Amino acid sequence: MARKERITVSLSQGSARFLRAFRAKVHSPSMSALFERIVADLQNRVETEQLEKRVAAYYDGLADSSVQEDSVWGALGEATLASPVDEEEHHRQLTGAVR
Questions:
Q1: CB under 8 Å to 22, separation ≥6 — which residues?
Q2: Residues 50-62: tens digit of each pLDDT
Q3: By Cβ atoms counted within 10 A, which residue in 38, 77, 91, 96 is the most buried?
Q4: Which structural domain range is residue 58 located in?
Q5: Which residues contact 61 (CB under 8 A, 6 or more apart)?
């Protein structure tokens, strides 16, 4: 387990009341555990936003031909996933079996 660091914060009465009520609602064993959860959620949100920005920058930097090719591959993938698979027919096609 990672070593803990003690910090002290001062909150408005309303914020403290909210946190106590929320702690009870989510059955957090302690206020420290609740804050760990809040920080982890915030950290995940920030990391997700950063990843989304990097992905957007990547696609914004692609040449139009690459974007179009990716679009075609994506459409093919969607069509393949959307079509039902007849396992027996697929097996016959792969093995060359005749009905």
A1: 34
A2: 999 999 998 888 8
A3: 38
A4: 13-95
A5: none
Residue with structure tokens 């993938």?
77
Instruction: Report how many domains make up the chain.
Output: 1
| 27 part of a folded domain | yes
- pTM of the shown model: 0.60
Spatial separation of the C-alpha atoms in residues 68 and 56, rounded to whole Å: 16
User: Which residue type does 33 have?
Assistant: A
Which DSSP string do the residues of 32-95 spell out, in sequence order?
HHHHHHHHHHHHHHHHHHHHHHHHHHHHHTS-HHHHHHHHHHHHHHHHHHHS---HHHHHHHHH
Helix (H, G, I), strand (E, B) or coil at 3: coil
Measured CA distances, 42 to 33, 36, 47, 86, 89 (Å) = 14, 10, 9, 45, 49
Q: What percentage of the chain reaches a pLDDT higher than 70?
A: 94
Q: Which two tokens stand for residue 52?
A: 């989304």
